[in-house]
Model the fold of this input.
Amino acid sequence: MASNGIKDKVAIVGMACTAFGEHFDKSASDLLVEAATGALDSAGIEKSDVDAYWLGTMFSGYAGVTLSEALKTDYKPVTRVENMCATGSDSMRNAAYAVASGAFDLVMATGVEKLKDSGYSGLVIPSPPSDGTESSMSAPAMFSLLAPAYCEKYGVDEKKMKDVLSRIAWKNHVAGSKNPKAQFRKKVAMETIQNSPSIAGMFGIFDCSGVADGAAAAILCRAEDAYKYTDKPIFLKAMAIAAGPNEGFINQDYDFTTFQEVEKSCQDAYSQAGVTNPRDEISMAEVHDCFTATELVLMEDMGFSERGKGWIDCEEGRFDGDGPQPVNPDGGLKSFGHPIGASGLRMMYEMWLQFRGEAGERQIDSPKLGLTHNLGGQPGRCVSFVSIVGNELG
Amino acid sequence: MKLPGITSYGSYVPYNRLTRKAMGGGRGERAVASFDEDATSMAVEAARDGNLENVDTLIFATTNPPYAEKMNAAAIAAGLSLSNSVRSMEMATSSRAGLSGLLLAADTAAAGRKSLICAADVIIGAPSGAREKSGGDAAVAFVMGSDEEALATVLGQASATTELLDVWRLPSDAFAKQWEERFGAIVLGPVCVDVAKRALADAGVEPSALTTVILDASNKRNIGAVPAALGLQKEQIADMLEANVGRTGAAHAGLVLARTLDTAKPGDKILVMSAGDGCDALVLSVTDKITSQRPKRSVDEWIASARNDLPYNTFLKWREILPFEPPRRPDFDRPAAPSAQRNQHWKYGFYGSRCSECKTGYLPPQEVCLTCGAVAQMEEEAFSNTACKIKTFTLDYLAYTLQPPVVSIVADFDGGGRFTCEMADVDPKAVKIGDQLEMTFRRLYTGQGIHNYFWKARPQR
Done:
């Protein structure tokens, strides 16, 4: 019994991502077609070359027909995947495992979400019929539990914490200002971030990622076939998912300063990829910065920072676009917003651009390994996805 | 035939007060049920403080039933985790129903049953009217059983029914109306005096022997002739809590009776009366069990635990009188009947579970133990009276509530068990990690015409 992974067995040979934002003029179907045809073009293939499809969407459509209808995929298999905010990543993971199994030669993983049609503020997640006893906390409120718990555990005062969180938002907006596909493409002054209206706990509006529409797609094949399609493929080194037992809400030992699911999924992924020192070995990461405090805690759970020291690394600029270990060089959820089914693939799209030297003014100098991290749920109760990719085999 | 007597009781006055000044003038304040309370939830709160052992009958009285059709008492029985074999009934449409229910409970006690009578009301008057100003919200509960365990024995009772138009409301009306007050006083005055005399005769008690006389009426003039007719002294007449609670409809005679019992001495004789479409009266004699069978909280303690800065427009929103801009968030989903029914012990009784293998406690109840992995080895455990404290909390400005922000907490229970819920009756600025809390039964919201009852935590009152 082991998590063996599929290191170097599968490559990504084509990718596309729509601009993320308020696409009031586009449907989920329109966005999917744009991303899917973009990915086909990127790999230089035809729709008929693709053997099977995966569609990640949380609630912008149901079943594989959401994609097959949009793209007219000619009775090919389409699997619809849902894993909360990690949906896009899990679409890709399942597509990759299908290729690794030998079942298919060439597949497409897609993800889409159309959130802006709801007419509500913030994210609205439909839930199954229930007894009405669940917590009614909004997403910002759930994640806002991290900040005071972190402050208390590591003796960081609240003002300092606010500075650190604001700097994370500031950093990701700086990155987003350099990305033509981001929803928010302006730098935001620290002062504006710090004085933004309260949403929950220590979070102001600028501590929260936005709500957006968007889609992304990837073409995957066996590693040995990769160079048939592109001279600059990227190779999957590891993919891991951990789903938690809701420890945070039923176990008094959980203290809201960590995501155990992230820790577990990282352990698995590092083991698959042979990474022993993530702080030094991971050149860059796209992480799930749904809220500023999430990114801080992730740095520690992923082993980029020592426990209780992540705030110092954040403050010193370690994770800046031009820092020693860039995190969210594309601007992250903070700049892109979070079309749920698409976000995981959007993160991979930045890896695709960076490893191919196509990231423009965001380009990171000769990255070795990149990591994407996607989180679905809330502190104490979530699924966590981690992938590690590189552009060299071995 | 056994003699009936009150064996236990409890009261509840909600936390919020609205000053009459805020309502446009006048002195004092009225008690206001929070936006997440109604007659059913407050009835549960009042009865929780009583000893409900062996209760086999539940009577619920209110003029403001949360459901016009569907038994509200069933939700109360579930909230109190009463036995499935309990008999239940509801009395409504007159503010006299509370005392009528107590009289009925006395009769059923005489027949050998043990009855819980809950009376609760949320009094809504037309804005700026006398009823809005003089009304109040509260609940009270009495267990009526045999005199062997009674803290107050029933010595006598009397009733009268009078057809007259005094206070009335059509089912389609939001607010009750009242006939010119002199009329009620002239018609009901002699009726009340007659009922008082008959009750005292039934009890064999002279007016001068009464320690306390409780004179409740839909219009206080209606019962105003009683003191002079009986030759009562001022000290015998109970304070009807006009200054700080208001008249709490069907709960009111009982609430003042509970307050009387809070300080009564063995041997005290009490006459409690309630007038409205006639009159009911009950004569009680306090026993020496009064000192050991009082509830945890007295009426005065409930009254003292209050906040009186509620803005008038907030009150009007809570009572659904004032329309307001809805948040840009979806309406509440309705609770699903099968799920609510399956999880009834959890939802209404706040029963979690404890692993019989490793003794870890869980809220909500779990099937598989997180700690030891045992499957289906859980035992039910009530957590509603277990102390808990705040592990962490947040103020949620995005979640919809009639009193923003939502204070959401992670609560750790003594002896194990953790639960995340909303806080009620709390000043957001005063919440701190480590605060000791207690649980309270609430109506969280009404989704698509279905009331969603469940528990919240509140600061200790």
About this structure: Chain B has two domains: 4-318, 337-459. Chain B touches chain A through 48 residues (CB under 8 Å). Chain B has a mean pLDDT of 96.
